[in-house]
Structure formats: C-alpha cells, structure tokens
Amino acid sequence: MSWSDKGQQVRGLLLKTDWYLCFGIVFLLCVLIGLTTAALKLNEVLNDADALPIEAVAIKGERKYTADAEIQVALQDLMQRSFVSADVNQVQKALEALPWVYQASVRREWPAKLKVYLVEQTPVAHWNGDAWLNMYGDVFDAPTKQGIPSLPLLTGPEEQGQAVLTTYQQLGELLTINGFALQSLSLSARHAWHAKLKSGIELELGREDNMARIQRFIDVYPRLASQDKKVGVVDLRYDTGLAVDWDDAQKESR
C-alpha cells in the first residue's frame, strides 16, 4: 500500500471519528437540554400554588387565648405558596410571633396538609404592670384575655423576672401554710424586697434573709392581731425585731 493510500485511509478514519464525536456531543446536548427543561418544568409545578396548594392546616394543642382568626392572619401570606415551597420554619416563626403562643412545631403531611402543634403561654403573674411572667419566669407581652385567673402582681428590674418569681413562690408557700396569702412582691433597683398580703398588710423585707424575716412576722402576728388596731406596715429590716405602722395611725396623720 502506498503512502497515498495510507493517507486516505487515515483521513477516512478521522472523518468517521469526527462524525461519531459530533453525534455524541449533539446527543449529550440534547439530553442536557431535555433534563434542564424537565427540571425547570418540575420546579414550576412544585412552586405553583394552584397546582399543589396547601389544602388544610391542622392545629392541635390546648388553646385558651389564641383564636383561629389570629392564626389565619399570621399564615395568610404563607398560605399563598405551594405545599412544597412553603417553608415550615417560616410558618413556625409566624405562629410563635403571636403574643400568646409560647412554642409551635410544624410538619408536612402528604399530599397537601400542614400539621401544627401549639403550646400557649401560661401566665403566672403580672410583671411591671403591663407584661406577664410565664411559668418559666420568662417575660412576655400580650393583651389581656378573658379567662385569665387572678394573678399576683410582681415588679422589679426587667432582667430579674425569674428571680422575683422564684422568691414569690418561696415566700408565698411559707405564708400560705401559715394562713396568709401573698398578693404582690416587688424588688427595688437597690434590691430591697417589699411584699403585700391580701389582707392589706405590707411587709418591708430589706435585701436579705427574706425567709427568716417572713417567719419572724408569722411568729409575732398573733400578738399584733390581739391589738385593737389594724396592722398597716410591718418593717422587718432589723436583725432581731420589727417596727409596726398601724393603719389607724396612718389615717389619723393624713
């Protein structure tokens, strides 16, 4: 075979190889285009609220202060999304932003339902007049609702909510087992405690030894009650004794 024949044979093989290569590249491009188109179409369908709407939201958990209407308003914008594109974390945040919701958990249930479990705030005290303390001592702001029981009035520096609640519970338990009821407790900016009983008696407790001073009041109260006067304020900020302001004396001085 001459060099000319060999050259023609090589050129034929190269042309054939180029043809296969071009065909392979075109086929690969067609496959890629097809996959991209399918992915875009699938993404469009998954994000189409008309094609895959959220058909229902099931709310569970005991609710006293959060109405269905409040939940509907909170989820109004999110419900315009498709079932797949709805972000459950955003749904959770929207629900937990409601004033009386303490915690919310959200999960999808195929084919088109969101399941929500709500835990409401449990108020245990009024805090600084216009806020509340929950059972964990956390401060939260929420409007007053019907059905909220009578709660103690607690006041103090904003960051001391849990400490004031804990002290209230400790003092309240000691007073209750001895026949008294604690109505309010306040902590001043200088960390001095002031308590008021439901009977109207006020107790100045100072900065320390609260339990011991409450016990001193309990021990001496029978003697105070035997007087033909009404107890107004009992100052227990002494190491061993106490001072009494009689309610009648206060009225006479006014």
UniProtKB/TrEMBL annotation:
Keywords, alphabetical: Cell cycle, Cell division, Cell inner membrane, Cell membrane, Membrane, Transmembrane, Transmembrane helix
Location of the POTRA domain: 52-121
The name this protein goes by in its record: Cell division protein FtsQ
Assembly mode: Part of a complex composed of FtsB, FtsL and FtsQ.
Stored PROSITE patterns: POTRA
Pfam families (UniProt xref): FtsQ_DivIB_C (PF03799), POTRA_1 (PF08478)
HAMAP family, A to Z: FtsQ_subfam
Extent of the signal sequence: none
PANTHER family the record matches: CELL DIVISION PROTEIN FTSQ
Family under the similarity heading: Belongs to the FtsQ/DivIB family. FtsQ subfamily.
Transmembrane segments: 20-40
Topological category with respect to the lipid bilayer: Single-pass type II membrane protein
Function per UniProt: Essential cell division protein. May link together the upstream cell division proteins, which are predominantly cytoplasmic, with the downstream cell division proteins, which are predominantly periplasmic. May control correct divisome assembly.
Species name: Shewanella youngdeokensis
Keyword Membrane among record annotations: yes
GO BP annotation list: cell division
Localisation per UniProt entry: Cell inner membrane; Membrane
